[in-house]
Amino acid sequence: MRIAINLASEPFRRDRPMVAASVAVGLVLAGMLAMLISLAVMERGAAAETRQDIAVLNKRLAALNAEQAQLESSLRQPENAEALGKVAFINSLLYRKGISWTRIFTDLEGVMPYNVRLISIRPQVDARNKVLLDMMIGTQSPLPAIEMLKRMEGSPLFGSTEVHTYLPPSQTEPLHRYRITVNYGQKL
Predict the structure, then answer these.
(1) Which listed residue, 29, 66, 141, 158, has the most CB atoms within 10 A of its CB?
(2) CA 162, CA 149: separation in Å to the nearest integer?
(3) What CA–CA distance (Å, rounded) separates 143 from 147?
(4) pTM (global) more than 0.85
């Protein structure tokens, strides 16, 4: 009969696979650490270049702002005020002249149902150089006007619409008439 007794002060353990796996994981982690350090160094260099580019652009911007301030101060002088007023007036005329009627009618054709009549249209340019269309439309029933408003609000060319007045049919005018204003996205 054999009795399995281990009289050694340190019993035998199978630690070799665990040690080998630990060494392998340690090497992988050390490689990843080296890669992260190299990436951090490269990013620091790129960030330094970006900071230099931003500093150069800020200097150019400051120089342009100083030049613009100098030009504006010379324009604001009393002897130049009359010329500045004329320039502003001519610029407003040019903006109004820049509105393309052909393009307005082409864009309206895409959103107007066949049974809506355009009675009048008056484009206006506001202080922010945005075009606003003031229109009068006529329809046999209210449904085509509602359809037109839905199409305008869904179109990327037209912005928010607002109905100002509604005139029901009368003996002299058989149409339902609506006065509408709409923001128009034509570039000047």
Answers:
(1) 158
(2) 9
(3) 6
(4) no
Element (H or E) spanning 83, and its range? helix 78-97
Amino acid at 116: V
What's the domain range around 170?
100-184
| Rounded CA separation 26/39 (Å) | 20
How many domains does the chain fold into?
A: 2
Summarised one tens digit per residue, pLDDT across range 81-133 is: 777 778 878 877 776 677 788 888 888 888 898 899 999 998 887 777 788 88
Report d(CA 66, CA 20) in Å as an integer.
69
Which CATH number belongs to the domain containing residue 140 in this structure? 3.30.70.2830
Which stretches of the chain score pLDDT less than 70? 1, 6-12, 95-96, 186-188
